[in-house]
From TrEMBL:
This is Aldehyde dehydrogenase. Gene3D superfamilies: Aldehyde Dehydrogenase, Chain A, domain 1, Aldehyde Dehydrogenase, Chain A, domain 2. The keyword NAD applies. It comes from the Bacteria. Keywords: NAD, Oxidoreductase. GO terms for cellular component: cytoplasm. It comes from Abyssalbus ytuae.
Length: 459
């Protein structure tokens, strides 16, 4: 296996060196083909996602296929402009010159993706790397085999093998791929595996994007519109069965509004998924036994105010609210990544700070409040990847906003123009004119030291 991986990488490198991928017309042509193949197979993709973890058609359309198509459309529309060298202001020390930033592809890119949004988290980085002129080796998650199968069909229909190759397989495949030398690695997954990827990349000084996870706080203060907050939180939390990297992980709320909030939250969950969410067409399952067991353990010895129903035969966990878990409880140890929502009361801003800063920098933070000064303070005070005021998840959907973490929730960002920028090296070029050659910089320096000190004052 590892010999053939080596061979494929060598062939991809040879293909990259042939300069074909640097042709913008070629890039646009394959992106257009990719767009139409996805569109053609949209129903098949939704079916695959349903078969993998009962993801509903609506959620598959909005969060997987339509999202991917919109990003590809944006790449096609802007590609020529983004590829053009950018002229920047020349510096006085280089006079006379024209200074430029050229965008060049890194070369051979490795993309490793997770299972929770298995289509878009593989296809958006793939399309972006291709738009920037790279070749790609893609390793989708082993836990969503139906989606991976469609991805292979699409990639085979659109790309020649030297340009893009999909490697199916689990951890071992990933480990073999990580032993190779890549020009760029784009990884989406857990913080722990992110560290393994970062270490492997460091061996060859390979640049990386790491899109990781975290424990995302959601603050609801006493001035918030409680009913609307409950509705927007329930949507963002239970979308994809809570298996979303930017889902609100836990609620922080003052005790005086907690009762009302819990009432509205329960109403909203029941309105959305019925009294028996297991029968709902819109509520997905947990991806596998390992995650089912991990989540089921979080329910032990807790005060469950809604849900808490599990069925191992289908990896089903109902939307669940836990009231006031202890700081050292299982549910508060790590990112939950499932349909369980702890609600914790805070009594002061100091208390809020104590809870939030006891975890690493999260991927998202959400604030529900009507107080402008409080909102401003929270945004400034805490470091997190991105977030929303009076909403959840919505930061993901605007292509003009960077999507990525900070600290242990990630390195780098993408979406919109950053899709192209992430996979492009910026090459700085000074084009010097010959009609003038200022003698100052040349030795012997002698009395020029005096002049050098004077010049400093000009900048
Ligand atoms: P994961 O880290 O277990 O797996 C991700 C990928 O890495 C898979 O393709 C897997 O095969 C591979 N992998 C697993 N263990 C490995 C190892 N030891 N060495 C090399 N490769 C390995 O993550 P997951 O369970 O698929 O996804 C859930 C996690 O991903 C959550 O923590 C979530 O927050 C995070 N996530 C982040 C984003 C984001 O955009 N920031 C998006 C989705 C998911």
């Amino acid at each position: 296996m590892s010999a053939s991986i080596k061979e494929i990488i060598i062939n991809q490198r040879t293909f990259f060196n042939s300069q074909q991928t640097k042709d913008i017309t070629f890039r646009k042509k394959v992106l257009k083909k990719l767009y139409s193949e996805i569109l053609k197979r949209e129903k098949q993709i939704c079916d695959a996602l349903y078969n993998d973890f009962k993801k509903s058609e609506f959620e598959s359309l909005i969060s997987e296929t339509q999202f991917t198509l919109a990003e590809i459309k944006d790449l096609i529309k802007n590609l020529k402009r983004w590829c053009e060298p950018e002229r920047v202001l020349a510096s006085l020390t280089n006079f006379p010159s024209q200074d430029w930033i050229y965008k060049e592809p890194y070369g051979t890119v490795l993309i490793i993706s997770p299972w929770n949004y298995p289509f878009q988290l593989a296809m958006v980085p793939l399309a972006s790397a291709i738009a920037a002129g790279n070749t790609v080796a893609l390793k989708p998650s082993e836990f969503t085999p139906n989606t991976s199968h469609i991805i292979i069909q699409i990639v085979t229909a659109v790309f020649n093998k030297l340009h893009v190759t999909v490697f199916e397989g689990g951890v071992e495949t990933s480990q073999i791929l990580l032993k190779e030398k890549w020009d760029y690695i784009f990884f989406t997954g857990s913080t722990n595996v992110g560290k393994i990827v970062y270490k492997a990349a460091a061996e060859n000084l390979t640049p990386v994007t790491l899109e990781l996870g975290g424990k995302n706080p959601c603050i609801v203060d006493e001035t918030a519109n409680i009913k609307l907050a409950a509705k927007r939180i329930a949507w963002g939390k239970f979308l994809n069965g809570g298996q979303t990297c930017i889902a609100p992980d836990y609620i922080l709320i003052p005790p005086q509004v907690k009762f009302d909030f819990l009432k509205e939250l329960k109403n909203e969950i029941t309105r959305a998924y019925g009294t028996e969410p297991k029968k709902s067409q819109d509520f997905p399952r947990i991806i596998n036994k390992k995650n089912f067991d991990r989540l089921a353990k979080m329910l032990e010895n807790e005060t469950i105010v809604l849900g808490g129903i599990t069925d191992e035969s289908e990896f089903y966990i109902s939307p669940t609210i836990i009231d006031e878990p202890k700081p050292d409880s299982e549910v508060m140890k790590d990112e939950i990544f499932g349909p369980i929502l702890p609600v914790i009361s805070y009594t002061s801003e100091e208390h809020l700070e104590e809870i939030i800063t006891s975890y690493n920098k999260p991927l998202s933070l959400y604030i529900f409040s009507a107080r402008k000064s409080f909102i401003k303070k929270m945004i400034k005070k805490y470091s997190f990847g991105g977030g929303c005021v009076n909403d959840t998840i919505a930061n993901f959907t605007n292509k003009n906003l960077p999507f990525g973490g900070v600290g242990s929730s990630g390195i780098g960002a993408y979406h919109g123009k950053m899709n192209f920028d992430t996979f492009s090296h910026k090459k700085a070029i000074v084009k010097k004119a010959n009609w003038l050659d200022i003698p100052l910089r040349y030795a012997p320096y002698g009395k020029k030291i005096w002049l050098a000190k004077k010049i400093r004052k000009l900048f």
